[in-house]
Amino acid sequence: MAQITLNALAHTYSPDPAGPKDYAIRQMSHVWQQGGAYALLGPSGCGKSTLLNIISGLLEPSDGEVIFDDRIVNALPPEERNIAQVFQFPVIYDTMTVFDNLAFPLRNIKTPEAQIKGKVEEVADILDLTPLLSRKAKNLTADEKQKVSMGRGLVRDDVSAILFDEPLTVIDPQLKWKLRRKLKEIHQRFNITMIYVTHDQLEASTFADKIAVMYEGQVVQFGTPRELFETPAHTFVGYFIGSPGMNFLEVTLTPQGLAFGTLPIPVAPALLEAARHSGSSNIKLGIRPEFIEVSEAPGDETLAVEVEDVQDLGTYAILSFRIGSAAFKARLDEGVSPQGPRAHVRLPAEATHLYIDEYRVEVTQ
Amino acid sequence: MNSSTDTLTSSDRQAERRTDPEAAEAVVPTRVERRTRGGSRGRSRLLLGLYLLFILLPIYWLLNMSFQTNTEILGTLSFWPQELTFENYANIFTDPTWYMGYVNSIGYVLMNMLISILVALPAAYAFSRYRFIGDKHLFFWLLTNLMAPPAVFLLPYFQLYYSVGLFDTHVAVALAHCLFNIPLAVWILEGFMSSVPKEVDETAYIDGYSFPAFFVKIFVPMIRSGIGVTLFFLFMFSWVELLLARTLTATNAQPIASIMTRTSTASGIDWGTLAAAGVLTIIPGIVVVYFVRNHIAKGFALGRT
Amino acid sequence: MNKVQSNKAWFLVLPMLLLVAFSAIIPLMTVVNYSVQDVFDPNTRFFTGTEWFVAMLNDPALQGALLRQFAFSFTILAIQIPLGIGIALLMPKQGWRASLVLILVTLPLLIPWNVVGSIWQIFTRGDIGLMGWGLRELGYGYNITRNPLDAWATIILMDVWHWTPLIALLCYSGLRSIPEAYYQAARIDRASRWAVFRYIQLPKLTNVLVIGVLLRFMHSFMIYAEPFVLTGGGPGSSTTFLSQSLAIMAIAQFDVGPSAAFSLIYFLIILLVCWVFYTAIMNLQKDKS
Question: Which among C184, C195, C203 has CB closest to A108?
């Protein structure tokens, strides 16, 4: 049981890094609270597996510190960190039975055999592995194998955290759901810190209480699934979370306010002030397709747009349209189906976010 | 990155910053030192070094003697040549009966490699892709040929090649070595070919390739490294074999290995020349292994059991 | 892989079959033919039936060679298999060091077999060889032409030098096929070095080791050139193995009939041992799963 703190952590695989581009993990600090269920979400190559391996001790970070409670464990190898890790492809010891597989970590620390039996049976029961205990691990199905490798993490009493590295990649879709629920159950029962690496936002949000979204070696936002959806702190989060992702409009600062091309875009004065103050020319407005209000007739604060396409996805439909040259998508409410080449959209101010240098600007109103 | 951190004002970032100093102030983390693992890395390097020394010492001694005169060899035991001489090598390179031995050896080895790979490629493809009457028995029979001691075939080979007029030719040795090299090539290649998915073949046929065109233009390039490794093994086993090569040749196609026996004469053994000739037989092997060094590890898996 | 049923595949196998048949079947038929006849000269021969086989099986010289052959093969297997595994575990996995070690380790395999004999002949001579000289300097009266024990030890050392690399390379390739995650999981499970070897590495080596044992047994059973050059089969006949006995009988004495019968017995022994070993291993694996 431990709180895991990453302090000014950075990692590079290159011996003489020239700039931030050479870093797999750019300098970051982060705290994983004891007992939390976390997901580390990001596209492949964003550094999430590297980060996981640094926490488990398979990799030693080039800079910064990994702190378990109050111990800096940088120099500790994984075997001394009391960590369990479940890998993308199930790792099982082929020649052993399921029982021996589960008992393996306990036998390695010379636990009395009587104690092992009780512990293994308890874990097998939780994971529904009891009928398989005497089988050779070699002949199990992929999901059973993955459960065995999870079980090896659970049998030890002293585990401070369980790390999952895309554990459901090789599992059939209908079993994925079952295993994910099992994981949640285990989390609630044992109160162990769990960190779950995935590139699947659905997997992340069903498993985790809080999600860390990683992009180019940095955690760009750490929050609940709801926060990631409603207030993406970084344009990447907006784009990556949600389906389809957030719409962005690149705007410029004019003496009158913000404008897209020649089209003035009204925003709250405080946001405008923040944009002026930043001195940056990289200014974007973002709004999720779900929050765009589409109507067939013009109304208050609406923009007339060109409809490109309506895609019916069964339970709802996605409208593609253009504001000037920028492509937008909006989710249509039931009953609304704009006919003809034009539609009228409203971008509600409370759902519109301002991004300067890709990060969201927050103003207290 | 730092500049963007300064400007961002997201609530999460602020929260992070708030927790950080607190955590640092509340408890000062203690650094846990690494426990050294008994220098196991150093020990394994030492053991490997000792083994390499064991491998290299006899070869070094051969090299050492090849640069000495016979007087020095027989006179004193010197750990390195006191009077460096190239005379032994000069002997070999100026005497056609000597250097032709290398030409002969390389000649039949190359010939054998070519024959073996050409007939083994289609055969291995058949074994890896098709079921046909007697396939399993045929494969097993092939492997039994790997187990046949060359000594068993000495006399019949001698008579066979003599009667067809191939005695003392390169072809005779190249064909004789097919006995073990073709089965070996089929075995290794079959393993490599079976790891190429069958869909590759099917896609090619759908794209309108004929079998020969597909085989040469698509399939062979795909198992390039497997062919390289196979050629390495073919070279190896043909190059090192002596018994058959010696029995099937007299003067025209005599391999270097059997010419080396000439160094022992009534007046004693010409150690220097023997050593130099030995050194020269090692060099082709080094050249070949250098070319396939990145593939040997894979190739030694030798297909599957 | 699902193979397609097609007897046309025979056409692909045919060239290979013809060549191997030419190299294997015709000579083998000749041997069988000789083994049941007594040949005086090309025109005078008698059918002898199994007479030569009986004679050969009762020949004390050949029985001796056969025993020595088994003793030799088992000794070198007992040394080379564990040693080869050990070397493979020590070999670096990447970088220029890996290439260099790989090349050096492969080196003995690519030296012509009689040159291997010559190298060791030179190396072990008491007057001019480093090892022979060194052992004498240390006070041991090392002499491979007089002392059968020395001759045996030297031949075994030579074979270990010559062939351990094959086992090492086989195991090395087997080890390289183990995904990194296995080692990582083992570290996290706090497996000891021994447990990693026993439960991760050794299971992956089973296949290559079966091949390794078969190849080594076969080759050691056919050994000819190396002891021929090093000891000439002596002192006495203490290092005369089967191939050399056969070569003397067939070529030097030209005893066509007996040597043919001997050849067949020799070949059958190898086939039998390989078959027994292979089926035993396969049954063992079947039982496990």
Answer: C195
Tell which of A73, A98, A104, A150 to mutate to test the C interface (max C CBs under 10 Å): A104
- Contact B32/A362, CB-based, under 8 Å? no
Ranges of each domain in chain B: 40-75, 94-299
CATH architecture of B94-299: Orthogonal Bundle (1.10)
Asked if A79 is an interface residue toward chain C (Cβ–Cβ < 8 A), one would say yes
For B96-115, give one letter per residue: b (16+ CB within 10 A) or e: eebbbbbebbbbbbebbbeb
Residue scoring higher pLDDT (B150 or B111): B111
Give A329's strand partners. Answer: A320
* Domain at A244-361: CATH code: 2.40.50.140
For residue C176, the chain B residues in CB contact (below 8 A) are: 297-298
Indicate the domain borders of chain A: 4-238, 244-361
Cross-strand pairs, B231: none
Total-model pTM: 0.82
Whole-angstrom distance, CA of residue C36 vs CA of residue C79: 40
C228 lies in some domain: yes
- Nearest by Cα to B302 from B211, B220, B225, B190: B190
pLDDT at B5 over 60: no
CATH number, position C215: 1.10.3720.10
Which mean pLDDT values do the consecutive 10-residue runs of chain C (289 residues) have? Answer: 77 89 85 78 71 80 87 94 94 85 90 88 84 86 83 92 92 87 89 90 87 88 84 80 82 78 86 85 68
In angstroms, the CA B239 to CA C114 distance is 11
Residue among A89, A93, A134 with most chain C CBs within 10 A, to mutate: A93
Total domains, chain C: 1
Residue C30 lies in a domain: no
* Whether the predicted pLDDT of A95 surpasses 50: yes
Torsion angle defined by CA atoms of residues C52, C58, C60 and C64, in that order, rounded to the nearest 10 degrees: 90
- CATH topology assigned to domain A4-238: Rossmann fold (3.40.50)
